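Internal tracking record. Fields below are filled automatically when a chain is submitted to the structure queue. Please do not edit lines marked as system-generated. If the sequence contains nonstandard residues, flag them in the REMARKS field before resubmitting.
Queue: standard
Priority: normal
Entity type: single polypeptide chain
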Amino acid sequence: MIMAKYIYQQENWTNFTWDERKISPLLAEVRNLQGRLLGKMGSLGFVLQEEATLKNITLDVLKSSEIEGEKLNKEQVRSSIARRLGLEIAGLVNSARNIDGIVDMMLDATQNYEKPLTEERLFGWHGALFPTGRSGLYSIEVAQYRTGEMQVISGAFGQEKVHYEAVSAKNVKSEMDVFLKWLNSDNEQDSVIKAAISHLRFVTIHPFDDGNGRIARTISDMLLARSDESKYRFYSLSAQINKERKKYYETLEKVQHQTTSNDITVWLEWFLKCLKSAILSSEKILKSVLTKAEFWKIHAKTSFNDRQKMMLNKLLDGDFIGKLQSSKWAKICKCSQDTAIRDIKDLIEKGILQQDDAGGRSTSYKLIETTS
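SYSTEM-GENERATED OUTPUT FOLLOWS
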């Protein structure tokens, strides 16, 4: 008999248990925060809800990829999401094929959260993630379960450390059939708990050549949308996971290495605390959405050219990196330095921008805080 090294090698490994005394109070707290957030956003109207959703899904897509070491272009992600949601916003740019694919996967999960997750849908997500059939320099099996064995390793060549060996390729199909049946069943399990368990089960099976982490987080987002009963997204779980990346991998590894117990309290505890932090962190995004809405309400009758509108939105969205200088204005707006200076002086005269104390070549400008 082969000694078990990982949790999935136990008989009935998915019959998970946990300490209700630790999990129930955390779940109740998360559910309360979700309800309060949805109530607050529900009173703000569709335009602001759409703006918040755009910000949070953009953050989710960016940070889920960042967890895997891939940095995507924020403007392309934002533009791709806005186009697919039919939102009319200024400054849209063309987006790369791989970014459109990631966005398609995320929007299918969160906007069609009530639909069952089938094998066909899952393969569609994987195909969207890897439209060229390659991951970096390597050709991979796309839109199908892996046929090779899978190890999660780290370290330099010749000094690799094996963190985890996934379910054998010959068992992936049967494990995924059981997983999808459970996921789509109405088993009276709380959707937030189900989101946590689905994440653990999926990355433990590791059914694909690549993209398992991103798809696991997308499944969690789908179930969280189900728990909110809303297509609007007002918080980003992936952004918080990215902040806690080290603990995320440590907790997964700890649970996956269990060989004598199906107790997943440590994973549920971490997941719920992470989700709680994600919801609390949403306050910053919601504040920026409200500030931006208030600004345009105050300046509804103020005349701006297209360059000014674009740059003001960048500043209000917090998308402007570094200090605002005329040279940056000219570069972003693709205009001359003289035009940039005229645009900025006009906004100073209108009481919208002010010059920072430092002058000369380092002259920079910032928004004046407005109150209605």
